[in-house]
Design a protein that fits this description.
Blueprint lengths: L1 E6 L14 E8 L10 E8 L13 H12 L20 E7 L4 E9 L4 E2 L3 E4 L8 E2 L7 E8 L4 E8 L16 H10 L8 H6 L1 E11 L2 E10 L14 E10 L2 E10 L3 H13 L2 E2 L18
């Protein structure tokens, strides 16, 4: 059963990724008549966006569909380019998703009231048990158990489950795992092509990785880019997907939330996706919980 409920905005102070550097500029103006005028000061706040990576990146086929639809429908829906100003000052409304089948939850953005901007989410994959979920690779180790997509603004939030890759996570004690090794383990299984783990990892570039302890359990956070082979419709070198992710372990399986958008959208949408990743939690199992190890090869 999936429950949706409104939730207050998340504080950026508790956010593992979101960091804003605010720049203040003092602009003074005075009239020629210094006897009758007084100086007026105006302060402007702007978010100093990080420079975009200059990597040779491309789309996968699903990304191309999203990109095409985003372009063709931009005349109907408000463009994300209108999201100006300091994101830190925005009043962001978020909703929560609770998946009782896999016992996790997270929050996702739904509205920016001050900008009259509404996210247009579609639940492309409803939460389902690991055994019946769609595989992300030919060996079916890593599988998507839920997914939601905002086609207009080119956003994807998904949750996947899969066993650790012993090539990267050799120790039994998960508290000794590094965030980079966890990221490599997850990304090595994330491919729809029949390629080796090293080839799958070559498609991705990990930009940052760190860990945090929440309620006594380790959570690993990482940021990465994904690039694909050039196509006739996507030949520009700056076309790639920018991801943030959070992973936690339970019952011998890795639970990962991925949130992504196009690289060129990152400065506008990235902070919202980071809030989603920061909110990801493994919940206490209920009677509806189906552990991933139960009938792992059952596809119905």
């Amino acid at each position: 059963m999936v429950l949706f409920s409104p939730s207050p905005s998340l504080s950026t102070a508790n956010h593992p990724f979101l960091t804003h550097h605010l720049c203040f500029r003092n602009q003074a103006r005075a009239t020629p008549d210094h006897k009758k005028c007084r100086k007026h000061e105006k302060f402007q706040i702007c978010a100093c966006a990080a420079s975009k990576p200059t990597l040779e990146n491309e789309f996968c086929r699903r990304d191309l569909v999203l990109f095409g639809l985003s372009s063709s429908l931009s005349v109907v829906f408000p463009s994300s380019a209108s999201l100006a100003g300091s994101l830190a000052e925005e009043e962001l409304k978020m909703a929560s998703l609770i998946d009782d089948i896999n016992a996790y939850s997270y929050m996702y953005p739904v509205e920016l009231p001050s900008k009259k901007f509404i996210f247009k989410w579609v639940e492309s994959r409803k939460p389902e048990r690991y055994s019946s979920a769609a595989p992300l690779s030919p060996d079916a180790r890593l599988r998507i158990v839920s997914e939601r997509v905002d086609i207009i603004d080119n956003l994807i939030i998904s949750v996947s489950i899969g066993p650790p890759n012993s090539q990267f996570l050799k120790a039994k004690d998960k508290r000794t795992w590094t965030a980079k090794d966890v990221a490599d383990s997850v990304l090595s299984d994330k491919s729809a092509l029949r390629v080796t783990s090293s080839q799958r990892m070559a498609e991705s570039s990990v930009l940052d990785a760190h860990s945090s302890e929440i309620d006594g359990e380790p959570y690993w956070y990482y940021e990465y880019l994904v690039r694909k082979s050039p196509t006739k419709t996507a030949q520009e070198p700056n076309l790639y997907r920018h991801y943030v992710a959070s992973t936690a372990e339970r019952d011998g399986y890795l639970y990962t939330l991925n949130a992504s958008t196009l690289g060129k959208q990152w400065n506008k949408m990235g902070p919202f996706l980071e809030k989603t990743v920061a909110s990801f939690r493994l919940n206490l199992p209920t009677e509806n919980y189906v552990p991933a190890y139960k009938d792992p090869w059952r596809f119905w």
